[in-house]
Every structure is written in C-alpha cells, then in structure tokens.
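Figure 3 (text version): structure tokens given as input.
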C-alpha cells in the first residue's frame, strides 16, 4: 500500500513541476505570427472607423462553422456572428474605440494556435466603457490565419 501512495506522490510532484514549467511570461509580438498581429491591427482600425463588416472580414473565418461564445451564449456561423455584432453595436457611438492587449500565444501545431488577450471599448456620453478577455482559436487556411472560434467575456 505504501508503494501505491509513493507512486501517487511521485506522480503528483512530477505533475506539479511540469505545471510550473508551463507558466510563461507575457509573449512579445514576435512570438505571435505576423499574419495574426496584422489582422488584429486591421480589426482595431476597422472597428474604430465604425466598419463592423470590415472588422469581421479582417479576422473571422467566413464559414457556417465559425464559433462565437459571448455573454449571450453560443453563436454558430459567420453571418449570425455579424448580425449579433450589428445588433449590439448599432451606431458609431455604441462602438466606441477598441483596443486589444495580447497576453499569451500558444501554438497548437503548425497551422493552429490559441491567443489570449483582453479588449477595451472606450465609449463617451451616457454609454459606459466596456472591457473583458478573449480566447481566439486561429487556423491557417490556404496560407492565411483566420479566427475559427472566439470566446469573449
């Protein structure tokens, strides 16, 4: 019986040690593929110019399998996601000014990756500013990076 407990203790110690090695410092933009940082910059610019359609087309996979998870639940499909953005942000005032902070990039193979970050909408007047975090699953499709899943809170 002691051997079993000893083995479990060793396994726990090894697991705990490996978890410590997984913790990374914040990545530099050099670690994030250039195509992704360019798309996110283009998304910020499009949003800040009041162009939701351009915001979507600059990063999201234009496919019925696009997955978006937000405060209202799960949305499937590019067009449904676009419709939700247009309903939630009906005018330039509601859109505010968008700023992304990129916190962590994790490659998930050669053509997939997970990007963790935060977003902030600075809004004026009677509308309060909004902020939250996101996890974006990216996939390289025909040599170009696209968001295939977005979980924003």
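Below: residues designed for each position.
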């Amino acid at each position: 019986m002691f051997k079993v407990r000893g083995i479990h203790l060793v396994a726990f110690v090894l697991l705990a040690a490996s978890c410590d090695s997984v913790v990374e410092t914040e990545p530099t933009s050099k670690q994030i593929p250039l195509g992704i940082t360019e798309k996110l910059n283009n998304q910020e610019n499009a949003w800040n110019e009041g162009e939701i359609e351009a915001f979507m087309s600059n990063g999201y996979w234009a496919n019925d399998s696009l997955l978006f998870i937000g405060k209202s639940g799960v949305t499937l499909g590019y067009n449904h996601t676009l419709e939700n953005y247009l309903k939630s942000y009906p005018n330039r005032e509601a859109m505010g000014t968008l700023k992304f902070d990129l916190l962590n990039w994790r490659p998930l193979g050669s053509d997939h990756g997970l990007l963790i970050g935060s977003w902030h909408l600075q809004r004026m007047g009677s509308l309060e500013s909004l902020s939250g975090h996101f996890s974006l699953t990216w996939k390289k499709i025909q040599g170009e990076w696209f968001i295939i899943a977005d979980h924003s809170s």
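Residues 114 and 137 are 5 Å apart (CA to CA).
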